[in-house]
Amino acid sequence: MLTEKIKRSYYPLALIAAALLSGCVEEVVDNNTTTTAAAGDDTDPPIITLLGANALTVEAGTVYTDSGASANDAKDGDISANITQSGVVDTSAPGSYILTYNVSDAAGNAATAVTRSVLVADTTPPAISLIGSSPQTVTLGASYSDQGATANDSFDGDISASIVATGSVNTGAVGSYTLTYNVADSAGNAATAITRTVNVVAVTLPADVTPPVITLTGANPQTVALGSSYSEPGASANDDRDGDISANIMIGGNVNTASIGSYTRTYNVSDAAGNAAAQVTRTVTVTEAIPPVITLSGDNPLTLEAGPAAYSDPGASANDNVDGDVSANIVMSGTVDRTTAGSYTLTYSVSDTAGNPASATRTVEVSAATAPVITLSGANPLTLEAGPAAYSDPGASANDNVDGDVSANIVMSGTVDRTTAGSYTLTYSVSDTAGNSASVTRTVDVSAATAPVISLSGANPID
């Protein structure tokens, strides 16, 4: 075939030989030539081309998306899909990162690796936002509390705590004041400073015609013991314009604790406009220093038997020569453990309005627990003959070492069927006021019914 082509060629033989040596031959037919490549070894590596910029700067905190690369091989064509990329870009950590791209063709020829330089940098300044309005208006003499501002950075997040505020507001002088807020992020990017304007203005108030109000501190009236000292509780005063003017209150009237009687204290004050408050008075009564008298209810000492029942105190009453019945003010201290035998002390305390104290004590003796004793009436066991008559129980009695006769509290359980022979059990139970319980049983034996025996008098039979 090749010989036939050579025969048909118009080229010199030397040129044909050269073509054969170079691995290709030209076929010329009708003045048209065709070049055919002969098979040979693939030694040419592919070429990698980056897509996108190199070097590349990425904002810290954003998402990095790589543009990738393409690869072309003289024999295999487009082998971009085979490219391997190594290296990572961490946008959470500013710095310089290198990405490397490699590929080989089907013959194993490795391309020259290509790299991309990616710089992660925080270049965005934070943004400051005012809390509250601007401008703000403050009344002359009032207090001003700045609401502050917030700052947010694309990389550092909330950096409000780093804000530096400069400037001041003098609410004692009419004028316009400027507060400036600045902040920079960790990369040194400074935010655009923002300002707040605070205007201090004078307010013309209408004439002050409202008087202040006086409020007494402590009780009114008060009672003081003869010969004691009187301590003035004082009073407070408030004005709608001047505020707290308690320090300006004038107190009049004396209390002579050396002499029994009733004394009057007066309280007066005026505001800055001269409006006088309504006078307030307090009555102080000096009485003889006699404490209240406490009277215990119930026994003292009080003896109880140990048991599960809770302790119930009989209480006490108290009477004062001035205040009268002050029983409701009695405070009892101490406890009684009814479950544990022992001696307990309870203290009753009370004071009258003059502060005269009184106290009394009660001793509570809790003795060891002793249950009541139940005594059955009638026989035990009790034997009866079966019959139609109903069962009538002989009963029982109970006595307690503390409560005495508690027979009325006995509860009997169980039944006896008098019509049916058999053995029956009755249980008798009782508890004392301390909760100590006792019980006994009675056995009732019902025997089978026996008919009467008749004995004849005289001969039987009779002739």
Automatic annotation (TrEMBL):
It comes from the Bacteria. Residues 48-120, 128-200, 214-286, 294-366, 374-446 form the Pesticidal crystal protein Cry22Aa Ig-like domain. Keywords: SH2 domain. GO terms for molecular function: phosphotyrosine residue binding. It holds the Pfam family Bact_surface_Ig-like. Signal peptide: none annotated. This is Pesticidal crystal protein Cry22Aa Ig-like domain-containing protein. It comes from endosymbiont of Ridgeia piscesae.
